[in-house]
Write a structure and sequence with these properties.
Length: about 250
């Protein structure tokens, strides 16, 4: 038996070789039925099939996390298909990295809508169903940039920092209902989306980036996925309201 047998999860941002896909895979391999979402149908269907081919149970539902109607539709699809909801992994996110003088108000609004409004809407609409679960977990995927800052990461860091308040307050409200809320903070995890942030020469930069990390290497998506799956098990039942770093020691200094 898996540690998550009989449980049902919604994981957002699962349409690429990414942290979201890794979270969904890890949770499915521990027995959870997973609903994977995202804006790109081809990538989402691919994630669904990868999980099914590995022996897991998965369903893709197209979603824009900034739209309230989409959240209601995803949650209803989850209930119609699997009959319950136990875990919400707010993984979908965007990053804008540029000097503060070049940032626009539109940049900040865009990041807020995806990285903060999205998790808020998910928590709001999932909440009553998570109460019914009796043992629920919300994971808000943040970043070490929300803790310690990063040059050219002003807007991104500000929004990711805002997720901490969402997590801490949610944990306090959730505790009487056996809902745990944890903020996960990946460091330099090497996903398919890294070149979108660092540019087309990202792979050439990887050795230098690795050398600056205490652990000496960049992380892989499954490092985050395995940790998120663990946080959803009863073995982690006393963990809530905290910042859970997965960063090879980058946040320690």
């Amino acid at each position: 038996m898996g540690a998550l047998d009989g449980k049902v999860a919604i994981i957002t941002g699962c349409t690429a070789d990414s942290i979201g896909r890794a979270c969904a895979m890890s949770m499915a391999m521990m027995g959870a039925k997973v609903v994977v979402t995202g804006r790109k149908e081809n990538g989402g269907k691919e994630t669904e099939q990868i999980i099914k081919d590995a022996g897991g149970k998965a369903l893709f539902v197209r979603q824009d996390v900034t739209l309230e109607d989409d959240w209601q539709r995803v949650i209803q699809s989850t209930l119609d298909t699997y009959g319950r909801l136990d875990f919400l992994v707010n993984n979908a996110g965007e990053a804008i990295v540029k000097p503060i003088a070049d940032l626009t108000r539109g940049d900040l609004i865009f990041l807020r809508q995806v990285d903060l409004d999205g998790p808020f809407l998910g928590m709001k609409h999932a909440w009553p169903h998570l109460i019914e679960s009796g043992s629920a977990v919300i994971i808000n995927m943040s970043s070490i940039v929300g803790q310690k800052g990063m040059p050219n990461g002003t807007a991104y860091g500000a929004i990711k920092g805002g997720q901490l308040g969402l997590t801490r307050t949610g944990a306090l409200e959730g505790a009487p209902h056996n809902i745990r809320v944890v903020s996960v903070h990946p460091g330099m995890i090497w996903t398919a989306g890294v070149p979108d942030v660092l540019g087309p020469k990202a792979e050439e930069m990887r050795p230098a980036i690795s050398a600056k990390l205490p652990w000496g290497e960049t992380g892989e998506s499954h490092h985050v996925g395995d940790a998120v799956a663990y946080l959803c098990t009863d073995a982690a039942k006393y963990i809530t309201g905290c910042e859970f770093n997965i960063d090879g020691g980058a946040g320690a200094g």
